[in-house]
Write a structure and sequence with these properties.
elongated
């Protein structure tokens, strides 16, 4: 990347939130390099509603990076349940399902 910046960066890209005269990474609109899919440039792509969407894209990018590093299964897909603020709800629902399963198994015997 540092040895060939002209391969990964370009001027005149709209939607990056910087002047067109500045260099910015060539990305797919979701922070991933279009030149090398192992490179990510979080926060260089603008979202329609910057605040919420940028947070979502940030987590999505982190998920893709973790997947690329083998920390998340390749077949996994990113969804809202992956977000930390939703984990409390996910854990509650999982525990509720387990409780209901155990309770119904106990009634069946």
């Amino acid at each position: 990347f540092l040895q060939e910046p002209e391969r990964f960066l370009a001027r005149g890209q709209e939607g990056k939130g910087i002047p067109l005269s500045c260099l910015s990474p060539l990305t797919d609109g979701r922070s991933r390099s279009t030149v090398d899919d192992s490179l990510f440039f979080p926060a260089f792509d603008q979202a329609a509603n910057a605040g919420t969407a940028m947070g979502f894209w940030g987590w999505s990018t982190g998920f893709l990076m973790a997947q690329r590093l083998g920390l998340v299964p390749a077949e996994a897909t990113f969804g809202l349940d992956m977000l930390p603020e939703r984990q409390k709800d996910v854990i509650f629902r999982r525990n509720l399902r387990r409780f209901l399963f155990v309770a119904s198994a106990g009634l069946a015997t």
